[in-house]
Design goal:
The chain is an alpha/beta fold. It has a single domain (2-224), classed as Rossmann fold (3-Layer(aba) Sandwich), CATH 3.40.50. The chain has helices at 51-61, 87-97, 101-118, 130-138, 182-192, 212-224, and strands at residues 2-11, 16-25, 33-38, 65-70, 123-128, 144-150, 168-174, 197-201. It has an 8-stranded mixed sheet with strand order 1-2-4-3-5-6-7-8, sandwiched between helices.
Length: 225
């Protein structure tokens, strides 16, 4: 497996940003599929080195995926569009507005770049905690083939965009998760009419330290089999 640090330049009409990330691929270079993995919230230490995010990438690469994981604005070497403000204050302002459209736009861009770099026409996506909201928004795109949502904080973010998703969808929740319960997840699936799969990890909490292998077992069965 090769990990390559990259900086993707996103140009728009009013701003140019560098987005910091890691692309990973098999040593033989043979990739038949692609995937993007979205980290937790930056205020909670969410970055591309997160234990769950890295474990998912390693699993998928071992199954001939070309993967990408990227830091959000202000994290690592990813640019922010403003200066003179701390990462915490920048993201606190986004939280207060409840407007993550710029972050979603960045994620759409990086996902398309992963497809371009890998030469694939569709992509699997996975999100963890805050990253599940980003992944859910990307499910509006027809090129998304499957989606994995790990510990989606359904009481904080809006997941109604999933109602029109026709691909495969997997939810993974910890029994002692501080952000979501099994019952809340089932209620969301029923409300949106999702024909998805829900997996519960007994005795685990929101951070999944030591349970990365179990998460990968579920994802392997869901995406790789």
């Amino acid at each position: 497996m090769f990990d390559e640090r990259v900086s993707l330049k996103k140009d728009s009409l009013d701003i140019a940003l560098n987005i910091d990330g890691i692309i990973s691929y098999p040593e033989n270079g043979k990739c038949t599929k692609s995937a993007c993995i979205f980290p937790p919230h930056p205020k909670l230490g969410g970055d591309i080195d997160n234990n769950v995010v890295k474990a998912i990438s390693e699993l998928l690469v071992s199954n001939s995926f070309f993967t990408g994981r990227f830091n959000y604005r202000g994290v690592g070497k990813s640019d922010m569009e403003v200066s003179g403000i701390s990462l915490y204050d920048y993201w606190s302002a986004l939280d207060a507005r409840g407007d993550f459209s710029s972050i979603i736009s960045d994620s759409q861009f990086t996902t398309r770049e992963i497809m371009r770099l890998s030469g694939t026409e569709s992509v699997a996506i996975a999100g963890y905690s805050f990253g599940t909201m980003i992944a859910a928004e990307l499910c509006r795109q027809e090129y998304v083939s499957s989606c994995v949502l790990i510990s989606p904080p359904v009481s904080i973010y809006d997941y109604s965009c999933l109602s029109g998703f026709n691909g495969k969808i997997l939810f993974i929740v910890a029994e002692n998760d501080l952000g979501v319960t099994k019952e809340e997840t089932l209620a969301l699936m029923e409300k949106l009419g999702l024909n998805g799969t829900l997996e519960l990890i007994p005795g685990e909490d929101h951070f999944y330290r030591g349970s990365e292998e179990k998460i990968c077992e579920f994802i392997s069965k869901f995406i790789c089999s």
